[in-house]
Amino acid sequence: MDRIPNSLSLCTENEHRTWLAAACRAALAAGDLIRERYEQPHTITMKGAIDLVTETDVAAEAIITASLTADTPGIPIMAEETKASHATAAERLWIVDPLDGTTNFAHGFPFFAVSIALLDRGRPMAGAIYVPLRDELFYAVRGCGARLNDRTISVTGTNRLIEALVGTGFPYQIEATLPTVIRQLKTLLPLVRDIRRAGAAALDLAYVACGRLDGFYEMNLQPWDTAAGWLLVEEAGGTVSTFSGTPFSPFASDILASNGGLHHQLLERIR
Ligand code: IPD
Ligand code: CA
Ligand code: CA
Predict the structure, then answer these.
(1) Same domain, 7 and 131
(2) Does ligand 1 come within 6 angstroms of the Cβ of 192?
(3) Is residue 199 within 6 Å of ligand 1 at its C-beta?
(4) What pTM does this model have?
(5) Domain span holding position 228
(6) Average pLDDT over all residues of the chain
(7) CA 193 – ligand 3 centroid, Å
(8) Cα dihedral sign for 130, 131, 132, 135?
(9) 176 and 70 in a common domain
(10) What is the structure's pLDDT at 245?
(11) Same domain for 118 and 197?
(12) What confidence score (pLDDT) does residue 9 get?
């Protein structure tokens, strides 16, 4: 894991350095397992009609939990697959999506990632998103910028909708949300260069941070989908809000992230 020391020049504060190293170490370890298991058969359990969990989600979460606990004892962990951890009201906590893009992973569609963020009184202070198949480690520390492997990343500069590639996602609760999903697509699709639904919200946000997407919006997300990506986008110079333009929180269910220049125009179309 000689990747981690390289990333540490990003932060000046010791505590932040510890959090970043812990997030990166855990994400890389889980990513190794996910990469190994990707082409093997999976055991799939249904959490809802179309919401899957595989043995790898659960195993990756166990690796992350052990790693974070060893590196930062005492900081509670809210992790997607461990129901008991969802209610924590701690001031400082880890938020973990062990495998964002489970449907993609289960179908052999190569777009998924590990997402880990340290939240301090509701604000992410350090975060990592790791893409095992591409060996891409996105990470950020509050106030110190965002990186992809050893490169500083930033959002795009366009303020023209027609030049924008925009990501979105479709909620698992699709029946209830379909009218809104369709209305937003109908409004936005004719105005932008194109829209992508790639299937991993945390990674979509990392793509906004590094300029592969100009914006991303989705409703009904969970804290583990958005916490690390929110920090990455802001540290890369972008803007993140709810659909009504109010300040974002990972406990808000909808998110609009953009390069900043497009934020108002996107907001007007999806709100
Ligand atoms: C899902 C993905 C997907 C998004 C869903 C999320 P999961 O996370 O991020 O893109 O549309 O809303 O729940 O279940 O693969 O971790
Ligand atoms: Ca997720
Ligand atoms: Ca997940």
Answers:
(1) yes
(2) no
(3) yes
(4) 0.97
(5) 161-270
(6) 95
(7) 29
(8) negative
(9) no
(10) 97
(11) no
(12) 72
